[in-house]
């Protein structure tokens, strides 16, 4: 049974490492999403500033500028949507790895409990045998 306990402990460590790897990937994806959202916000701020230009000389370029900003905004939105889908998938992987860790830990605890029970039962059986042997010895001496 000790070997089973060691095996489950090893499995728990392996699952913990897998969970940490998946969590690290999730954190990187969330960082990428934050970066893209910040970039889109800066672009939106630039659009607002560019749209408010009232100089006559800039008017011919304003429409083209706004069109370029709109296309870039759409591109960033698609990238953000893609990263958010990947984040959801990665969250599922992290949760699955967490479940595997908990399962391995639970199995290990069950094995440890079984070992403790077996040791207690063995000790109780040994004590019962000692009591029985004393009674037999006492009964034989009394005759």
Structure description:
With 143 residues, the chain is mostly helical. Helix content is 94%, strand content 0%. The protein contains 2 helices and no strands. It has helices at 2-51, 59-142. The longest helix has 84 residues, at 59-142. The chain is rod-shaped and about 130 Å long. The mean pLDDT is 88.
How large is the radius of gyration? 34 Å
Tell me the series of helices and strands, N- to C-terminal. HH
Let me know the number of strands: 0
Distance linking N and C termini? 45 Å
Strand content: under 5%
Largest sheet: none
Task: Please mark out the parts with pLDDT under 50 across 5 or more consecutive residues, or reply none.
Answer: none
| Mean of pLDDT | 88
Portion of residues within helices: over 70%
Identify the notable features of this structure and list them briefly.
143 residues; mainly alpha; 0% strand; rod-shaped
Give a topology summary:
Layout: H1 2-51, H2 59-142
Helix pairs in contact: 1-2
Summarize the entry for a quick read.
The chain has helices spanning 2-51, 59-142.
């Amino acid at each position: 049974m000790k070997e089973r306990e060691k095996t489950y402990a090893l499995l728990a460590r392996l699952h913990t490492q897998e969970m940490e790897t998946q969590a690290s990937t999730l954190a990187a994806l969330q960082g990428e999403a934050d970066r893209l959202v910040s970039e889109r916000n800066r672009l939106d701020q630039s659009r607002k500033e560019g749209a408010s230009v009232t100089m006559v000389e800039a008017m011919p370029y304003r429409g083209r500028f706004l069109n370029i900003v709109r296309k870039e905004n759409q591109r960033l939105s698609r990238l953000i949507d893609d990263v958010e889908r990947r984040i959801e998938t990665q969250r599922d992987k992290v949760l699955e790895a967490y479940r595997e860790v908990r399962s391995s830990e639970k199995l290990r605890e069950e094995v440890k409990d079984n070992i403790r029970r077996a040791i207690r039962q063995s000790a109780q059986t040994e004590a019962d045998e000692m009591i029985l042997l004393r009674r037999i010895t006492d009964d034989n001496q009394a005759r």
